[in-house]
Amino acid sequence: MINNSIAIKNASAVSSNSPAIRTEMPELVKLIDLSRCTGCKACEVACKEWNNLPPDKTENFGSMQLHRSLTPTTWTMVYFNEAVIDGNVKYLMRKNGCMHCENPACLTACPSPYAIVQYENGIVDFNQDKCTGCQFCVSACPFNIPQFDSVSNRVYKCTLCIDRIDAGLPPSCAKACPTSAITFGEKHKILDNAKTEIKKLVKRGFKNAKLYSPKGVGGTHVMTILPYGNNTEDYELPKNPEVSPLTTFTKGPLAVFGGLFMGLTTLGSFAHLITAGQSKAPEALAAKEGKEEEIDRHNLATRIIHWTVAISAVLLIVSGLSLYSPKLFWLSNILGGPQSSRFLHPWIGVIFLISFGLLFIRWFKDMAIKPYDIDFIKNIYSYLIHDEKNIVKSDKFNGGQKLVFWCFSAGLALLFISGLFIWFPGFFGSFAARFGLFLHELTAIFFISAIIAHFYLSLIAIPGSLAGMITGKVKSSWARFHHGLWLNGNK
């Protein structure tokens, strides 16, 4: 839940910050001095008690840790690790939890407005009421901090006790620490204290002691003094964490490109309608020949499968675009709200995959590309402007339809594979999930654009196509003009 008494500096999926600064607020920082940490776990207990978090099932894996990593109900935990440093075995301990980055990757990746906020004091907070459970933040975080709860379908992490801070109290972990290994205060004061403590450590023989606040994420509001500063990874910390370029590109330039490309496809369809108009050639052909009959084109099973594909495609576009762009987030309300829309999206995708697979089985032989299909594609302009004299004759499906079919098939395979990466980031890993999101959105841009063009051609530009897929029958003049080879083969 967002703390409304503290001004917001930045928020997920919005272009503007807090409308007004309520009070001047200094940056706050929590400092963890690992040279003072005894691994007593008082911080773990205090966090659980203050946030009313239930205990997790313990796991015995040869460590003093209660379990291997953070969970949706364990927001901080002391990590223990043995490492060989300068030829000696050292027993390292580190309090793990959200780093509260100045440039938080989780906030950049989140598609839900105000699901993640960054307050003026630098603290990054999750608002579970706005969380869709998409897990984009989970895969984006370079520290693997956010934890997804499959029961509530929400993501959780350390809040830095924002409620206590608002009341003028320190975080519960800092209050509970018996050795003052955890301190909290204004950034400039904490940094001065950190420099003093590091100098003391150097004098004691820890020549590589340093302050861990990586620049790749803009610095952090949870800083750590590492006695063995050259052994960052032995503390189970990334050496050079950063907001992944994939995340930045996917949420920035790719989103802009996608909006432009899909918009141009839509505008191109309108432009075609204005300039070329609907195809009237079949009507002229019927009037010239003076006879017309109905031809069977699609049986009932094919039509049912096709409309299942079409309906699921529309629902996929609606639910997908709501996650794709903050400006289209309102589309999620069509499917019952952000949470249900995100939950339904992959399952609708499964229905789409199965139904398209059935359609593929029925049509793949008819979709074999022949030499005259290549000629049709080369001469596609004549088809688009309804130039009947120069249109290359086609069989049941023309070259353009066949090309789109095979592109759809390849695109669907990419969407399915990348969708699995996004759906199960815990199984495939953060990089696979980030790459999956990039590939998913890139493929979806062309996929949706192709669907827009297909809908326009079949519903508006080429009268008779829709009737053929509803009733299963087409007029002989329509078949002769658009699919003459197929019509002749049926006679």
From TrEMBL:
One of its GO terms (biological process) is respiratory electron transport chain. Pfam families: Fer4_11, Fer4_4, Ni_hydr_CYTB. One of its GO terms (molecular function) is 4 iron, 4 sulfur cluster binding. The chain crosses the membrane at residues 254-274, 304-324, 344-364, 403-424, 444-470. It is a multi-pass membrane protein. Keywords: 4Fe-4S, Cell membrane, Iron, Iron-sulfur, Membrane, Metal-binding, Repeat, Transmembrane, Transmembrane helix. It is found in: Cell membrane. It comes from the Bacteria. Belongs to the formate dehydrogenase gamma subunit family. This is Formate dehydrogenase subunit gamma. It comes from Candidatus Acidulodesulfobacterium ferriphilum. The lineage of its organism: Bacteria, Deltaproteobacteria, Candidatus Acidulodesulfobacterales, Candidatus Acidulodesulfobacterium.
